[in-house]
Amino acid sequence: MSGKETQRYVDLIARFKGARVVVVGDLIADEFLYGEVERVSREAPVLILKYDTTEVVPGGAGNAANNVVALGARAKVVGVAGHDDAGRRLLEAMPSRANTRGVVRVRGYATPIKTRVLAGGVHSAKQQVVRIDRVGPGLTPRQRATVVRRVEEALATALSNADVVIVSDYGSGLYTPELIARAEANAAGRATRTPSGTSGRLVDPTYVGRVPMILVDSRYGLAGFRGITACTPNEPEVEALLGVSIGDDPESLEKAGRALLRKLQSRAVLITRGSRGMALFEPGRPTDHIPIVGSDQIADVTGAGDTVIATFALALGSGATFGEAARLANHAGGLVVMKRGTATVSAAELLDAIK
After folding, report:
1. Strand boundaries in the chain, DSSP class E
2. How far apart, in whole angstroms, are the C-alpha atoms of residue 157 and residue 190?
3. What is the pLDDT of residue 297?
4. What gap in Å lies between CA 319 and CA 14, rounded to an integer?
5. How confident is the model at residue 178 (pLDDT cuts 50, 70, 90)?
6. pTM as predicted
7. What order do you get walking across the sheet with 47-60 strand by strand?
8. Which domains does the chain have, with CATH numbers?
């Protein structure tokens, strides 16, 4: 990377703090239970752990917002949490620069919890030995109707003053393309941004009139989000959506990426490929194959997709091209998979990696 290119990325990261980001989606409490291995149980062939401590961090859309804040920006969070202990701990764990006034609290709704039990010796790294997902029955039909209306109102308010929106869909079925579209329609009176020189943010004129940009990370419903700005699916998600197998075949990857672009009518598709790096697809442009950054000895991929889309979104909201945003996201993803648990990457860490 040339000195000029490096300086461009440094300037973009410096502008992260000015980007206005909305994160809407499924809020999950990620719980980590740590313990030390004592012995094998006589009752069954399982380990007995001596409990040490418990940590709760924001998961799902909360982790995407947490990454936005770690990178220096402020985030407005729109979602649903219960009036239960998990909901309380989840919101208490959100960083102060994440505005959670758009989170709808619902009595009787069980906040989803993903509990990971990690064990190890005194002088060894803790390894995940089991994960327990506690997901309740969800919202009743009456609750859903009320909650959808309140979420739409909160999202419309947030959209009226946003540069970019991250939709983090972990499969609850609540954050549908229809909900997003209705909220956009309700926020139609928002001020339209213009290129650099007036707003100082969106320097690419192709973005004018399409603000806020909508970026989607959807586990199961990506096909319904037609007309979005961009998405960041991983390779297995693309294979499942299109019913294809990609593997090491460049031709299969090319066909899949182009098919997804046409299907979604989006401006960009960024496919994350694990140790193979990333592939960025844009209409009318050659595919941009981005190799993995750093070591391929991955420690933990928990929440890595949230880091990627948060960085990608922040970069676009700060005036980056899709290619520049993808490279910054690639660096951030390479950093976060070397950390254990639901982790984030700071602006300082990303700067060091770029330099």
Report:
1. 20-25, 27-40, 47-60, 74-82, 98-106, 113-120, 127-134, 164-169, 213-218, 230-231, 268-272, 278-281, 288-290
2. 9
3. 59
4. 11
5. very high
6. 0.88
7. 47-60, 27-40, 113-120, 127-134
8. 3-27+60-110+141-354 (3.40.1190.20)
What is d(CA 130, CA 270) in angstroms, rounded to the nearest whole number? Answer: 31
Residue 342: per-residue pLDDT: 73
Reply yes or no on whether the pLDDT at 208 is more than 50: no
Q: Which two tokens stand for residue 51?
A: 């409990």
Active-site choice (30, 84, 217, 306): 306
CB-based burial, 104-124: b 16+ in 10 Å, e otherwise: bbbeebebbbbbbbbbbeeee
pLDDT tens profile 256-266: 999 999 999 99
Catalytic residue list contains 306: yes
Instruction: Report the distance separating Cα 58 and Cα 39, nearest Å.
Output: 32
What is 130-150 written as a DSSP string? EEEEE------HHHHHHHHHH
Computed over every residue of the chain, the mean pLDDT equals: 88
Backbone region of residue 72 per phi and psi (left: phi > 0; alpha: psi in -120 to 50; beta: other values)? left
Rounded Cα distance, 163 and 208, in Å: 11
Using CA atoms, how far apart are residues 322 and 337, in angstroms rounded to an integer?
22
Return the residue matching tokens 């506690």: 134
**Where does the pLDDT of residue 331 fall: very low under 50, low under 70, confident under 90, or very high at 90 and above?**
very high
Phi-psi region of 209 (alpha: psi -120 to 50; beta: other; left: phi over 0): left
Q: What is the spatial order of strands in the sheet that 288-290 belongs to?
A: 98-106, 74-82, 20-25, 164-169, 213-218, 230-231, 268-272, 278-281, 288-290
Q: Where are the beta strands (DSSP E) in 84-207?
A: 98-106, 113-120, 127-134, 164-169
pLDDT value for 205: 32
Work out the widest C-alpha separation in the chain, in whole angstroms.
71
Q: What is the pLDDT of residues 99-134, one digit of tens each?
A: 999 999 999 999 999 999 999 876 777 888 899 999
Check: CB of residue 270 under 8 Å from CB of residue 231: yes
Identity of residue 336: V
Contact 61, 29 (CB under 8 A): no
Are the beta carbons of 325 and 315 closer than 8 angstroms? Answer: yes
pLDDT of 296 reads 59
